[in-house]
Here is the input.
Amino acid sequence: MSSVCDLSATQLVNAYGKGDLSPVDAVCAVLDRIKLLDGQLNAFCAVDEEGAVEAALASEKRWHKRMSLSPLDGIPVSVKDLVTAKGMPTRYGSRAIRPGSTSDVDAPPVKLLRQAGAIIFGKTTTSEFGNKIVTENPLTGITRNPWNPARSSGGSSGGSAVAIATGMGPLALATDGGGSIRIPSAWCGVFGFKPSFKRVPSGGGDLFGLSNIGPIGRTVGDVARMMTALTKPCSSDWELVPPDGRDYETGLDDGLKDLRIAVSMDLGIVSVRDDIVSQVRDAVKLFDSLGARVETIDVPPLRSYLQEQIHSIQWMVRLAQLVRDLPDDQQELLDPDTLALARLGEGVPTAVLMNALALRHQLAWQMHSFFDSYDLLVTPTFHVAPPDVPGLPAELQTAPPMTSWCNQTMQPAASIPCGFTTDGLPVGLQIIGGRFSDALVLRAARAFEMARGQFPVPAITELSSGDRA
Here is the structure.
């Protein structure tokens, strides 16, 4: 039998129903694996063992009585350290946030997961305030790639992606303000989904409507199941898209026949590494073989996107707004990169900001019209392989070109692994839909996943062969 940690959430629930496993088995196996692997990878900044076991025992009793709360009851779920979870610290990856204080409330998505019976067991690492596409900061250090620990895991949801890739939990709750779910998912070889903006509640306001909350998992089915739990009514988020009561697993296997899929290797805005292009081209052949109508296209509305710095300007101002109310002694504790970017944000003229917002509005209209002609757009998730740690090369310090524009236009987008670079690191395939076509993006990802077959797991997980089975 496979290790418990290697089972998907769907497989775990099936085992619970048959009495072959219990939530206590799953939680203890995950906790054991964290103890074994996380010292090398640094995916977690807090773990609540006592609370997790207590919740698992409660779930076990429900399963014995055949009174499970949902198809997520008893499933271990980690939470990124930008999202509050009751009883655990939330420090946003920053030394500037005082240590020792635990959250006394759950953020809306965490509350929904607990209502579904999911077991919230730990907080995963992030770059400070989610500011970088690598996960490293002065508070928690470097989160390393499980395929090659000398490389970055990606960010800012690097801890979440590493946890999923190595079996330190089957599902993770993460955030994406410019690619922070999709980039680490691509670099770590897992499936990450950024929903349409406010499809999932967050509670807190986002000044520019950039940040999204979404799931990371090993399978599309697991992520779809988590989306069903996350898209319930929530009175504490006035911006929330009215829930439609959808079960995201329904229709997931309907396939791709006659879907109109546009393909672009570079979106006309960036040079993509040859071995990444090769893997994405092979992936696109699968879409064609599954009956989709595939067309390679250019995307003219995006040509001026990076040149005009639409995302970067808003992000700098957003960061300045987060930082300005911190006392001077706390600002001195910030990651120097965070503080420098916040200072730039303070100096952005009103006219420059308003121009960026006007261009964003124009871009959103153009991409909305683009999806009148196509059902989906497929691209590489990122244009290069993960960099060495520590640090971030200068050329990668601007807005992520392939991912951040989807945050501007509030569209759903997923990253699914589609192969490896020549140096053995995962490559991500990005699947993008028109706004609110979340279910269609998941359906396409599922079709690709089924045609591709199971993606390998990193060799580092072999060290965990002694955990519970």
Notes: The chain has a mean pLDDT of 95. DSSP finds 14 helices and 15 strands in the chain. The first helix runs from residue 9 to 18. The two ends are 7 Å apart (CA to CA).
